[in-house]
């Protein structure tokens, strides 16, 4: 799986200008720029999509604010910290690339095309996507846990899959999101870390994910005996005997599994039969 991590000055500056202030010096500068260059601020709001589309060749129509910030010590520090952040992510990715590729092949059953992360300062706490559905660029600036590289890998993969499926079955986005959580935040994270992570995710999807879970195990190829082992691992219980094994599920890819859940949602989502433990 091919993933690039890139630091682009224009994207970094744009996010420093429009995102939360990551230092007192930058906060003061932004206030001063806003007071003195309000028109330029409004003009460059549109630059975000252009930078994403043409990050290597982007030339702003008005470079006033970009040049002002480029010449400051505050930007130099932010740039150095972002470059250090890039090396940190690159190290985590390279160390886990082989296992990540293996697990994704098992869970997705289709190949992912190359992706690019345009990195911004991690304190900006941002994830953004290109508007163009064919653009595989993600703007990313999230803190890295010192003791949990697996969580970072999971976040990166989840961003990629959200982009892959962002327009898929748009009328059933809750089912799509629930399946993506099961696949990446839960099963992928569990496999790469060797510890179950099935009790995490969007709380609003908890019920739906519990209902899909038995069919998800069928997708993973589990028979009834194996389902019991998964339930013990994940601390999720259901009555195995109430479910007929859908053998075809272990032959489809993740798109096919989502289609199955949508097609059969009337009998998958049964409120009265849910067991919560």
Explain this structure to me?
It is built from twelve helices and four strands. It is α/β, with parallel strands linked by helices. The protein has a four-stranded mixed beta sheet with strand order 1-2-4-3.
Quick overview of this protein structure:
The chain is of the alpha/beta class.
Distance between the termini: 37 Å
- Can you tell me the overall shape? elongated
What percent of the residues sit in helical stretches (DSSP H or I)?
Answer: 55-70%
What do the pLDDT scores average to? 92
| Radius of gyration computed on alpha carbons | 22 Å
Number of helices: 12
Q: What is the beta-strand fraction?
A: 5-15%
H/E order of the elements? EHHHHHHEEEHHHHHH
Computed structural class? alpha/beta
Explain the layout of strands and helices.
Blueprint: E1 3-7, H1 9-18, H2 24-36, H3 38-44, H4 47-53, H5 64-70, H6 73-108, E2 115-119, E3 126-129, E4 137-141, H7 149-164, H8 173-193, H9 206-219, H10 224-234, H11 254-263, H12 265-268
Helix pairs in contact: 6-7, 6-8, 7-8, 8-9
Question: Which features would summarize this protein structure in a list?
Answer:
single chain, 277 residues, alpha/beta, elongated
């Amino acid at each position: 799986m091919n993933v690039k991590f890139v630091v682009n000055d224009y994207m970094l500056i744009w996010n420093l200008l429009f995102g939360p202030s990551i230092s007192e010096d930058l906060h003061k500068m932004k206030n001063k720029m806003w007071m003195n260059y309000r028109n330029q601020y409004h003009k460059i709001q549109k630059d975000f999509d252009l930078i994403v589309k043409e990050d290597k060749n982007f030339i702003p129509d008005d470079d006033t604010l970009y040049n002002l910030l480029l010449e400051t010590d505050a930007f130099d520090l932010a740039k150095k910290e972002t470059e250090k952040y890039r090396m940190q992510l690159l190290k985590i990715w390279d160390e886990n690339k082989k296992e990540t590729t293996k697990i994704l092949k098992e869970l997705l059953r289709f190949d992912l095309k190359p992706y690019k992360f345009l990195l911004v300062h991690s304190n900006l706490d941002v994830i953004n996507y290109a508007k163009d559905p064919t653009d595989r660029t993600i703007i990313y600036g999230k803190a890295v846990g010192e003791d949990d590289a697996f969580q970072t890998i999971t976040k990166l993969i989840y961003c990629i899959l959200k982009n892959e499926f962002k327009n898929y079955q748009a009328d059933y986005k809750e089912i799509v999101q629930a399946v993506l959580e099961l696949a990446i935040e839960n099963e992928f994270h569990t496999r790469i870390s060797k510890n179950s992570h099935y009790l995490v995710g969007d709380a609003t999807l908890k019920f739906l994910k519990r209902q899909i879970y038995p069919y998800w195990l069928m997708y993973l190829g589990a028979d009834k005996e194996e389902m019991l082992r998964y339930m013990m691992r994940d601390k999720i219980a259901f009555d195995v005997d109430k479910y007929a094994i859908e053998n075809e599920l272990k032959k489809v890819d993740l798109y096919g599994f989502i289609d199955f859940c949508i097609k059969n949602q009337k009998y998958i989502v049964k409120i009265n039969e849910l067991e919560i433990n």
